[in-house]
Amino acid sequence: MKKIIIAALLLAGILPAYAQEQAPKLYTLPSPYDRYTHYQVTARYTGAIPVGSFSSNYIDKSSFENYSIALEWVFQNSFSVGGEVGYSFFKKRIPRATYQQSDGSEISAVQTRTLMQYPIQAFANYSFAPKNARVQPYVQLSAGASILDYTLYYGILADQQQKIRPTYGIGVGSKFLFKKDGNFGADIRVKYQGTSYDYDYVDKGVSSVNASVGLFYRWW
Amino acid sequence: MLRKASYLIISATLWLTSCSNDPVNDLSDLDSQVFITNHDKSANFKSFKTFSISDSVTVVQDSRSGTALTSIDRDLLTRIITNMQNLGYTYVAVDKKPDVGLTAARITNTYLNVASNPYSSYWGGYYGGFYGYPGYYTYETSESYWAISMLDLKNADSTAERLNVIWDAQIRGAGLGNQDYIDQMVDSAFGQSTYLSLK
């Protein structure tokens, strides 16, 4: 009889616990990030390597003065779209040399070649992983316009042109969530960016390969 | 929330645009200097043998002009003579009918510049008004430079009383009033004009 009572008491303790395990667990529901379209803002710092004729004719020096901020709408499917604005600045100093001008004059100067851009682009991402995966590789296409400032200094004398020109990009990258289901994460991206431009030394556009590291915050 | 984020992006853009720096503020005085030379393609420099030089420097400030002979002006004229002699020309007095004559000038110009703000048209009137971005701004710059000219006295047009400038040089940049740089500046202007040499 005593044994039966002990067994009954044990069961009384275990059964509710068992029953509790069968109850639906709130935290196993899909994350809001899986269920809803949500927003994401990403700030990036970029190193840019000039390529193509921009590199061979004007500036071949890599730039580490590039920043951008992007706002993104992440859909429930694998796509997201958004806008990104940035700042990039290329500069190269050429030691003193004499340049023959088309009018026959000679200019001896230290050249400082600069190119500044404020690209403003719309982009679409395709992500290869679920919204809460710790690693989320993606590909990106972007297009927009770039406010360009071409300034070529001879000593302290400047030849400057400012234009707004079409720009586009194609990139691959990955997001890294700091915590499963969390709001914060890191972003790395490698992107080719091209801007149509033709002036003086730059005759076939401004193109560069940009490698960036960033931080993002997402909310819904 | 979305509206807030959009303003965040716009504010960030304006902040980024205000980060423009001066890419040449790290140049030394000598590196900042620019030597611009030009010559008359029809001039045959080999036909000239002698030269003379004005006894003072012309000083031009905006629309006013006069002459001066300060210590730095004297150094400049002396160095021009040295360079001409090194190129093979003979220095003679003005009354000895030199083939070419040289003059030097210190020129200071003050400009009132009007520049359009390149972003005003992009953001349009709405944000322009909101952030107080003007469409245009004005600024004043003052630039001084040295100018050296070579005049053809041998083939002077006596009827029109005109002398042709067959070579000229402009020296621009920082440190132009520094006496220590004078020799180097004049040497550079002549050095890049190899066609002047009689040798």
Notes on the protein architecture:
- The complex is a heterodimer of chains A (220) and B (199).
- Chain A has helices at 2-22, 32-35, 52-57; strands at 38-51, 63-74, 79-100, 106-127, 135-154, 157-177, 184-195, 206-219.
- By secondary structure, chain A is mainly beta.
- Chain A has an eight-stranded antiparallel barrel with strand order 1-2-3-4-5-6-7-8.
- In chain A, strand 3 (79-100) and strand 4 form a beta hairpin.
- The radius of gyration of chain A is 28 Å and the shape is elongated.
- The model of chain A has no long low-confidence stretch (mean pLDDT 90).
- With 199 residues, chain B is α/β, with parallel strands linked by helices.
- Chain B is 29% helix and 36% strand.
- In chain B, strand 3 (57-61) and strand 4 form a beta hairpin.
- Chain B is globular, with a radius of gyration of 25 Å.
- In chain B, 23% of the residues are buried.
- Classes of the chains: A mainly beta (220), B alpha/beta (199).
- Chains A and B meet through strand 2, strand 3, strand 4, strand 5 and strand 6 of A and helix 1 and strand 1 of B.
- Strand 4 of chain A pairs antiparallel with strand 1 (34-39) of chain B.
Element order of chain A: H for helix, E for strand: HHEHEEEEEEE
Q: Estimate percent helicity of chain A.
A: 10-25%
Largest interface: A-B, 37 and 34 residues
What share of residues of chain B is helical? 25-40%
